[in-house]
Amino acid sequence: MGRMVEWEGAKSGDGDDEGAFFKRWLRKGNAPAKISTVLSEKALEKAEEEKTLSATDSAFGLDEIIRIDFIAALPYEIAVQIFYFAADITTMSVVQGVSRCWHQVSRDKEIWRCIFMNRWGPVTRPRSLERIQSVARDWKNLYLQRARLHDNWQKGAVTPKFISGHMDSVYCIQFDDRRIVSGSRDRTIRFWDIKTQECVRTLRGHNGSVLCLQYDSRYIVTGSSDSSIIVWDFNTGEKIHTLRGHTSPVLDVRFNDQIIVSCSKDCTIKIWDIAAGELVRTLEGHHAAVNAVHLQGHLIASASGDCIIKLWDARTGVCIRDFVGHSRGLACVQFDGDTIVSGSNDRTIRVWNAHTGEHIRTLEGHRDLVRTLCFDKERIVSGSYDQTIKVWDFNTGDLLLDLTEAHTSWVFHVQIDGSKIISASQDRKIVIWDFGQDVEDVDDLS
Q1: DSSP H helical segments within 96-220, as ranges?
Q2: Mean pLDDT by 10 residues, the chain (446 residues)
Q3: Of 224, 331, 411, 443, whose Cβ has the fewest other Cβ atoms within 10 Å?
Q4: Which long-range CB contacts under 8 A does 35-44 form with residues at least 24 apart?
Q5: DSSP secondary-structure letter at 43?
Q6: Among 273, 168, 288, 270, which residue's Cα sits nearest to residue 223?
């Protein structure tokens, strides 16, 4: 596509954005000088004689319009730029019906890429990269599929799928587009094919319940009620390190390229060197079990039974800030660098500004302990001892979905991506809630 054309008057300071300018430009006599020179004087004279009101005029809220297909008179690249300025789904639905030329221009992939980005934001790197590189993206279809996925989330259009195989409560899960990894009271870590729901691998090594886990392409790190942490080779399943230092069950673990952060019923947080398997430092300050931690860069958010969330600097061990507001002990926390979301035995979820400590909002609706939660830029998903999973609007706090008919006991863990919720429970089941079953190429959208 040609470079962006600079129009005289396009940023005249009168408050118009580009879309408004495009619609104003349609009025007779308002075409800026540089573009109006593209039209012949004869064409303009003809337009002057043929002013009339039409359905298209009404759609744009215009009193009169030049009766000339000026888009057809422009070079294709400039026509695309005009539509690009008004790239929203409502405008495109109107202009596609004006004429064959307008319809053709409105299908340009750059226009639909702009519409997609304006509505949904950037697409993450596609998982099926080889296919995407060999075939140009159909941005219009991508927009329609993304809209269908959004609609499925809004309506709760999902049928749960169940995975059984653990012999006792399932405490923790993580998943990607190929697999689910779970930890259980039966002392095993199991790998499941996400499409067939079959168990493809089992790791054994803990002498107690597997209470928490995290994995990446190199490691899987697990914490147990036996007070130990095991670092496994993700690809071979071999043990790399067994970390001992906590004096009570390890309740949560998080890691990055350099460190592992663990928390325990012993009221402490420990930081370990992931390569050496050695203890770096211990963070003390909580006055009850530290039930959850989350790691972002060099910052650690911790949630404790003492009703307090703390934000720590992992490099120094200094507590930066306390977040106070819950009336009973905390069970879960997630932190994305800007926002902290916490769940508590007071049955509420609270949203906090991580930079200032400000309490933003409280979500109420669960009837028992909020045991687990996770969030992205669109939604918060929570699981509770009331046996339900709830989906909330991240920006407003409104309750969107209440999933009540899958688990028959306490919900211990939920995880999400753009198209799925996966949950684990005391009832020994893992449940997949897939909102993208009828959506094409859903892995490239989420």
Answers
A1: 100-106, 109-120, 129-134, 139-155
A2: 37 47 44 38 44 49 57 82 76 79 83 84 60 65 90 91 97 97 98 97 98 98 98 97 98 98 98 98 98 98 98 98 98 98 98 98 98 97 98 97 94 96 98 92 67
A3: 443
A4: 35/5, 35/7, 35/74, 35/78, 38/73, 38/74, 38/75, 38/78, 39/68, 39/70, 39/73, 40/73, 43/68, 43/70, 43/73
A5: H
A6: 270
